[in-house]
């Protein structure tokens, strides 16, 4: 299948967001076979496995992969590289030969099923190479031999282009246990690229220690003394708050990552220190801020995430555990200083299709932390702050006094269907501490914006909203109409909140909802059926109607044509640019097949120690393809009309 494409995409989503779904050990993690090959030194792990509950998603991603294959992205890549070579005076014919030399063995690998049964990614920061990682795959049992042979042949084909002596390939083993290692002879920094197989597991890795440990675990080499990550107490504790995973798990040991980052920073600072024979004469290191910078962000111990899919639903939970001394870090107040959200859906109307609510960042605390950091740790920090103060005087704006003093950290955002099928209206609501100060700054901004837009037949005028006196409407220049999402901007302050939206009607509806004159989002039928309950101590909430995801993404990529029209003529003649535009058009066709998502909802709470996120994603059967039109019944052929035959003329004239 095409689960490989899905898993690679979703693994990076998990890495960035770690938002998927108590004790997880008994029936969950033990089912992940590749867990036995992840060494205890790994600092970041993402792991997927197949099971019966994924049957629906597997079928849908097979459709996605078929759409990918039809587009011929490999041909675009070849054309792109070949164009660059030709521009530099290279031999296009030689490139074609080299490309085919790699493409032929690569074609023998069934890439779409390479991670069919399981896939795992593990990363470790390390000195002096910077980092090591490994990828573990479990293809279908009847594909292991063929896929590994194809991967080996592809690797050797690539190495055949490297000048002799620059890289060294060593191979060992045979049958079900084979290892190929590529190294740089005489390199002062150890480097190794490994492609290996042990029974039904294929391994690809960069580095030496993590890879060797993983291979030892796969072989069951007890003499190596390598423990698995899953056997460590730290790993177990990270998952003890979570339910058992069925198809996904992720683990990040942030404390270890930050400790290693601190070592790197210390090394860089020592290397960059000014040379001197007398320590007392040494000036500050130009990168002396690196270690304090790492310390500032060292807030968390671990992040653990699990997920379970059963047919048309995926549920998941993520737990981010703070360090015991997290409150001593300056950024703690910025990230966790705001209170939980009260009445999170107060301004969100029933008709909303996408909602995001959060306690947000304490921007004033963040600003003060940055200023303090620059003053204490950045070389010439006081001079930089003096320049910043002078700049604020010139523009007549004191950021902390004029902006951050009244801007709250909480936010509410939502979208709703627009006037046409392919447009969306949106509203953003921000908390305001001091309405008079907010209006004072906004009035200054209105005057300057009106002056700037007047030269482009735009401006700022009274929005004339009965529910919101004083709100302003921004008239944009005509060329902005080509950009999606801008609409007819409206902005203003009321009831301790700053409202900004691209539709006067939707802003009015938000105000009516807040005043109890219109039903709020709790009455939304889709949310009632598919959302998660909102309890106390909520710091974040999100809900998104995904029933038109494929169509909306396809329309977004369709904007490539508009972008192309706005590009200078010389750019559109560039082969590289044309290739990129072609690829984007093709991506638009592929994403249209993401028509099996229905909705997603997540709720985050914080108890002072643990950030806990619960998430649910719902799917639906994709729409059936339109039936082929029935061909007209065959009739007896008539002779062609002659010029004298008036009935053959258009409209009988």
Structure in words:
With 653 residues, the chain is of the alpha+beta class. The chain has 20 helices and 20 strands. It has helices spanning 3-17, 55-71, 73-87, 92-106, 144-159, 209-219, 233-239, 254-272, 290-297, 330-336, 363-377, 381-394, 399-404, 435-454, 504-514, 525-530, 549-557, 560-566, 569-572, 575-591, and strands at 44-49, 118-126, 130-138, 168-174, 177-183, 192-198, 201-206, 248-252, 300-309, 313-322, 354-358, 407-417, 424-432, 459-462, 472-475, 490-494, 497-501, 538-545, 597-606, 610-619. It has a 20-stranded antiparallel beta sheet, sandwiched between helices. Strand 4 (168-174) and strand 5 form a beta hairpin. The chain is globular, with a radius of gyration of 30 Å. The two termini are 59 Å apart.
Catalogue the unreliable spans: 1-27, 635-653
Task: Give the terminus-to-terminus CA distance.
Answer: 59 Å
Rg of Cα set: 30 Å
Mean pLDDT: 87
Record field, number of beta strands: 20
- Structural class estimated from helices and strands: alpha+beta
